[in-house]
Known about the structure:
single chain; alpha/beta; Four Helix Bundle (Hemerythrin (Met), subunit A); Rossmann fold; 2 domains; four-stranded antiparallel sheet; globular
Amino acid sequence: xxxxxxxxxxxxxxxxxxxxxxxxxxxxxxxxxxxxxxxxxxxxxxxxxxxxxxxxxxxxxxxxxxxxxxxxxxxxxxxxxxxxxxxxxxxxxxxxxxxxxxxxxxxxxxxxxxxxxxxxxxxxxxxxxxxxxxxxxxxxxxxxxxxxxxxxxxxxxxxxxxxxxxxxxxxxxxxxxxxxxxxxxxxxxxxxxxxxxxxxxxxxxxxxxxxxxxxxxxxxxxxxxxxxxxxxxxxxxxxxxxxxxxxxxxxxxxxxxxxxxxxxxxxxxxxxxxxxxxxxxxxxxxxxxxxxxxxxxxxxxxxxxxxxxxxxxxxxxxxxxxxxxxxxxxxxxxxxxxxxxxxxxxxxxxxxxx
Length: 354
């Protein structure tokens, strides 16, 4: 892998094939610089996912697919069985990086199915098909986000102020965004809107990414700390909340970045509608409820240090660092997908759309 630094510019690409390598925008460096993390092996891709170089469930899925295609190019097996077995090893390695984001596993399974469906073809052809499939997943994601934006914009009225938590924008997807895609679509319809962005401790995705991304798009954004949300809701300054999701259970329970549940509870108390925007690939139809969603526990240093640099807690203090929490379906006004907006209790009907 190698690092390429550029000056900040608008409309940067989150992830793409570039000169035969998988190039990821290094989101650990934002908002101060735009740096690309160039992955030459599937191990590099796994590292990028694990270390939050790329993050956001849809973007992680795209990265996983590209990682499989990248790894497949270096498989030296002479027959399909050996090739597929090596693909399984690659998928297992990538799949061990982030347990909560279901798009990761959805993409890995899709890539394996594509390989199996073409097993009668020469391995050289299968390898090219896998690269094409990973690009198809990228393109489909952007199209899904734009459709999601159109469906979700109906919930935003001219003059509304929206609260969002974490980053569910172009940076978390192939492009355009899920929750921020809805906000973008409303803006493109000519609606005057404002956004309050929670900082999103401990990794500060809201402060570093969402605020930067919305400013780049010319959308009015105000950054607040996580514990300020209730204050602004009580003052009547928030009209609705929109967030993304990393995994949605069959009953509509939704896992998203830690702190989302608190926002949903506050929104319900203040009579503010709370929406989740996510592609159908984020819905895990195999689990009945959010109780079955695995929650990733991350490095304690994310809590004890700011951006891994400035220590803000006593050495050796006990630290808990769950990366996600689950918002119950009854707190969610609607789940916005590329297939339309649905009451959480009705999303099981989308199972045949995956």
